[in-house]
């Protein structure tokens, strides 16, 4: 068996995505050079899947890290699976391709492996990542024409600017709008959503599997606590006594158990860390297995508790979390 392939999932368009990736979002006060260093450390540790977005404002650093690891012979470009995302200020058909081309210029790469619609809520177009009025309220744009945007993404794929296309933070009804689009050429290969033991997304996972769409988990450790974006009232899942007990039984960390849980459910999982020790530790999840009892116990921790509420968009017609899944 090709070990490399066995750690990948085949996407509906025939490309392969590594099942474990490095998440690279960090609050703006964290120096961008940390993302550059973490990416190089992750590639050295064995990661081949790097997840970012225009909104993270670190693509210049990540592109430099990837190019350096290609130049020193550690990897070839085709070994790396790089994800970028179309930000919410560009959710108009005429803005899609220029946004992807801007990311490619920042990265100094010829293509990305996956390009996602970052979220279904649209913000007022312009150079500001978070456009605000004088009182600090985030300015929303009108309803999004998902099908029109999707057609441009299909053309970007045909042009070789991205190998695959997908979505993020979509509910099942929003996915169905694209899936039912007349003349659909390529369906979304994945839906990247918040997913951890306290929000296990079992219904959305079932829906995605039934449509051959891969679920990709961000905030898989539930440890992101940035007040600007996150509901910090939810206790960190890694401190859960049941999860700790399972970790102790296997001689593993709670983080490793939380990541392994997703892999065994058929979920592609992103682990965000800029610490060398944790980057290495988070990759050590392929040499042990959780028992069916372990899996059931972790399933039982689900409380549908969401960290990322996107509360600024609650009045937008495309706010995704009004649906159960």
UniProtKB/TrEMBL annotation:
Binding of substrate, residues: 118
Presence of the UniProt keyword Secreted in the record: no
InterPro entries registered for this protein in UniProt: AKR, AKR1C, Aldo/ket_reductase_CS, NAD(P)_OxRdtase_dom_sf, NADP_OxRdtase_dom
Active site location: 56 (proton donor)
Site (Lowers pKa of active site Tyr): 85
Stretch forming the signal peptide: none
Domain NADP-dependent oxidoreductase as annotated: residue spans: 20-302
GO molecular function: oxidoreductase activity
Keyword check for NADP: yes
Alphabetized UniProt keyword annotations: NADP, Oxidoreductase
CDD domains: AKR_AKR1C1-35
Protein family (similarity comment): Belongs to the aldo/keto reductase family.
Name of protein: Dihydrodiol dehydrogenase 3-like isoform X1
Organism: Erinaceus europaeus
């Amino acid at each position: 068996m090709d070990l490399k392939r066995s750690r990948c999932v085949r996407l509906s368009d025939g490309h392969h995505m590594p099942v474990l990736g490095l998440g690279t979002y960090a609050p703006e006060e964290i120096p961008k050079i940390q993302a550059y260093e973490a990416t190089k450390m992750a590639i050295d540790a064995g990661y081949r899947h790097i997840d970012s977005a225009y909104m993270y404002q670190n693509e210049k650093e990540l592109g430099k890290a990837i190019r350096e690891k290609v130049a020193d012979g550690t990897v070839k470009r085709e070994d790396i699976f790089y994800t970028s995302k179309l930000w919410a200020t560009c959710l108009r058909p005429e803005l899609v391709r220029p946004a992807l081309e801007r990311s490619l210029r920042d990265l100094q790469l010829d293509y990305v492996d996956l390009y996602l619609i970052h979220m279904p809520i649209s913000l007022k177009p312009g150079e500001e990542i978070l456009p605000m009025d004088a009182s600090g309220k985030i300015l929303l744009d009108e309803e999004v024409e998902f099908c029109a945007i999707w057609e441009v993404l299909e053309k970007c794929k045909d042009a070789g600017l991205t190998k695959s296309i997908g979505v993020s933070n979509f509910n099942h009804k929003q996915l169905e709008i694209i899936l039912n689009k007349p003349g659909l050429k390529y369906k979304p290969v994945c839906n990247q959503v918040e997913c951890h033991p306290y929000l296990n997304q079992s219904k959305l996972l079932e829906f995605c599997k039934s449509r051959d769409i891969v679920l990709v988990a961000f905030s898989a450790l539930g440890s992101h606590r940035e007040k600007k974006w996150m509901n910090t009232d939810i206790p960190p899942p890694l401190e859960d006594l049941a999860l700790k007990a399972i970790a102790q039984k296997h001689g593993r960390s709670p983080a490793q158990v939380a990541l392994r849980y997703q892999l065994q459910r058929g979920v592609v999982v992103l682990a965000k860390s800029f610490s060398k020790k944790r980057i290495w530790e988070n990759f050590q999840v392929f040499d042990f297995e959780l028992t069916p009892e372990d899996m059931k116990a972790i399933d039982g921790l689900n409380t549908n508790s969401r960290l990322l509420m996107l509360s600024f968009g609650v009045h937008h017609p495309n706010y995704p979390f009004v649906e159960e899944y």
